[in-house]
Amino acid sequence: MTGLLRSTGSQIIRILSDAGETLTLTLRATKELKAAPRKFSVIIGLMFQYGVRSLHVTSVVGLFTGMIFSLQTGLELAKLGQEGSIGTLVAVVMCREMGPFITGLILAACVGSAIAAELATMKVSEEIDALEVMSIRPERFLVMPRLVAVAIITPLITILTNLIGILGGAVVAKTQLGVSYQRYFHSSIEALRDLDEMFNLPKDLYTGLIKSVVFGVLIAAIGCGQGLRARGGALGVGRATRLSVVNAFLLIIVTSYVLTAIFYRAN
Questions:
Q1: How many CB atoms lie within 10 A of CB 264?
Q2: What three-state secondary structure class fits 202?
Q3: Does the predicted TM-score (pTM) go above 0.85?
Q4: What span, in angstroms and rounded, lies between the C-alpha atoms of 145 and 152?
Q5: Percent with pLDDT over 90 in the chain
Q6: Is pLDDT above 80 for 265?
Q7: Which of 48, 33, 21 is nearest to 224 (CA)?
Q8: Which phi and psi angles does 195 have, rounded to 5°?
Q9: What is the pLDDT of residues 85-102, one digit of tens each?
Q10: Sequence-ordered list of residues with C-beta below 8 angstroms from that of 146, at least 6 positions apart, any chain
Q11: Average model confidence (pLDDT) for the chain?
Q12: Angstrom distances, CA of residue 76 to CA of 96, 206, 245
């Protein structure tokens, strides 16, 4: 029992220590945002590398997410004679929750792991130490551009995922439920047309985009943090990559719930 408690305690301390180091790294990188204009070409290159090469995965997942939700929900609505409202449900669910959520998970697996592996390889090969010897701060040279790039591409890919998911739902609504495209898209547009009093924007749209930006920051921060803490050669690189994906998944799930609870409170 004593050994179990000691092991659990050391594990908790390690997790909290890693979280603190990642937060500190993120804050230091945020202070370097003033140098972002000078890193414009680097940021654009990273956006292409991380974003464009992830589009095929997010597009396929977004398409079938919309199709599955449309089919499963539409079948139940058809029992009540309300299949015509399926466009409303698909549009709201994709924009409010599923679009940013699945985009965040896919980018955590594709982009977060790539960032962690790249920086971990540099760390174990002592390239990071060489940069520090030359008075080049990793926060400015490595972390800040990746933080900005992922924070920008995540909402952009989320918008595409939303659109593809809604289109996939339209195909299923037409072919499986007999709902015309005109009726489907009319209900979808009407569902997203209501403006929020605070920002004068559709609430389901801007809350989903805010979530995606937060997810992007989390993905980049965790990937950079795990990469820069890597130790032990190739084994350390693999461990950093695995932990970056696992931790990003967990934080995205928890953060998604917290943000939803903040934006949508029962009266």
A1: 12
A2: strand
A3: yes
A4: 11
A5: 42
A6: no
A7: 21
A8: -95, 140
A9: 888 889 989 998 999 999
A10: 46, 115, 220, 223, 224
A11: 87
A12: 21, 29, 35
Q: Which two tokens stand for residue 138?
A: 């990793």
Contacts of 154 by beta carbon, 8 Å cutoff, 6+ apart = 100, 103, 104, 107, 212, 213, 215, 216, 219
**Separation CA 265–CA 226 (nearest Å):** 35
Give pLDDT, residue 200: 64
What's the rounded Cα separation, in Å, for the pair 121 and 144?
Answer: 18
Asked if 230 contacts 240 with a C-beta cutoff of 8 angstroms, the reply is yes
Q: What's the pLDDT tens digit per position in 131-164?
A: 888 888 888 889 999 999 999 999 999 999 999 9
Whose tokens are 């490595």? That residue is 142
| Closest C-alpha among 223, 28, 57, 241 to residue 139 | 28
Which residue type is seen at 220? A
Residue 267 is predicted with a pLDDT of 47
| Unique residue bearing structure tokens 């990642």 | 22
